[in-house]
Amino acid sequence: MAKTIVGLEVTEESVRAAEITLGRKPQLVTYGEVPLPPDAARDSEVLDVGSVAVALRQLWTGARFKSRNVVLGVASRRILVREYTTQAMRPDLMREALPYQVQDLLPVPASQSVLDFYPLSQEGDQVSGLLVAAVSENIEQIVETLSRVKVRVRAVDLTAFGLARVSARLTGPDEVVSTVFVGDHTTQFAVSRGGVPLFVRLLPIDVATSAGRRQTAQTVEANEPALAYANSNVEVAMRTRGASRAASSPGVADLAARLRSTLAFYASRPAAQPVTRMFVTGAGAAADGVLTALNSVIDVPIQVVSVDDIITTSSAPAGELGLNLVGTVGIALGEVGR
Asked: 82 with 128: CB under 8 angstroms?
């Protein structure tokens, strides 16, 4: 069997993962999702190590992942992503210089941050790209939790970069598109061309109502163990949260307005190329009224994307899990060809 890698995300609602092959034509081998109890985690932050570790053990056992090497996707609203220009230099020198250069831009000391710079263009001796900064304590907590269940973190990636990556599987190499992942609490927005992220924003927006979230928790409790997984021999039908999900009008209106203004802000930037399409995914895309609201304010075609639209699989997950796994697979795709 071809070598594989697992993309993994820890969200407020669940831990989910997708295993793909690393060949020239990646395939989705297996996938899984296990719900978390309330207050066990926030988006990309572990609050209760014991509960998350238990869920991870269930996830690996239920989905029967072959690999214990993972790419960890992070998407916390506490992560800073902004455009940044600096002097061009070798990558090793850049890593050494970056903490001193960007200290004034960070909400915490550089010594307490994990920094990355994604170069996009160079003019003379100046290079421009995307600066990414996360709180190191949060990343270390997840890595430590994974080590408890003997899962090894091979790389850490911004989930929005994974969204940009999967867009390349849906477009031509020169088409500029936006990809939106609508989560319960955080919406990720990425503009990309040929899979390369040009612009990224993480938007703190609650889409599901508190009543919907309470009903979701009651549904999970009533159906324990409410986990979903698939492999070559067995598939467990997912008890989707879609049946109990409700969308608040203020939340949906806020989502539509924020995405419209974010798209307009990108378009106002010097040399910004027009966005031709918007791909929408994530469980929030299935919430009542979301697509109607987006279509009413976004003036480019909108397409809902599920995981079987971007990768070959013998047993495609349905419902919300199929939407949520788009970003998870995108994270793993970053290891293909390396």
From this structure: no
Average model confidence (pLDDT) for the chain?
Answer: 87
Span 237-245, average pLDDT: 38
Give the closest residue to 8 by CA, choosing from 331, 271, 334, 245.
331
CA distance 307 to 311: 7
pLDDT at residue 197 is higher than 80: yes
* DSSP run (H or E) holding 217: helix 210-222
Q: Where are the beta strands (DSSP E) in the chain?
A: 4-10, 14-21, 27-35, 41-42, 45-46, 69-74, 80-87, 113-123, 126-135, 152-158, 176-182, 186-193, 196-204, 228-230, 277-281, 302-304, 312-313
How far is residue 50's CA from residue 259's CA, in Å, rounded to a whole number?
Answer: 36
What residues contact 305, with CB distance under 8 A and at least 6 apart?
166, 170, 179, 279, 280, 281, 323, 326
Q: How many CB atoms lie within 10 A of CB 320?
A: 23
Q: pLDDT tens across 277-320, in order?
A: 999 999 999 888 999 999 999 999 999 999 999 999 988 888 89
The span from the CA of 18 to the CA of 182, in Å, is 19
Q: Which residues pair with 182 in a beta bridge?
A: 187
Contact yes or no for 21/3 (Cβ under 8 A) = yes
Sign of the alpha-carbon torsion through 257, 296, 81, 104: negative
**CA separation for the pair 204, 80 (Å, rounded):** 13
- Residue 235's pLDDT band, with cuts at 50, 70 and 90, is very low
DSSP designation for 284:
G
Under 8 Å between Cβ of 99 and 105: no
Helix (H, G, I), strand (E, B) or coil at 334: coil
The string of DSSP letters for 142-178 reads HHHHHHHTT-EEEEEEEHHHHHHHHHTTTS-TT-EEE
Residue 226: pLDDT band (50, 70, 90) is low
| CA 7/CA 233 separation, integer angstroms | 21
Q: Is the pLDDT of residue 208 over 80?
A: no
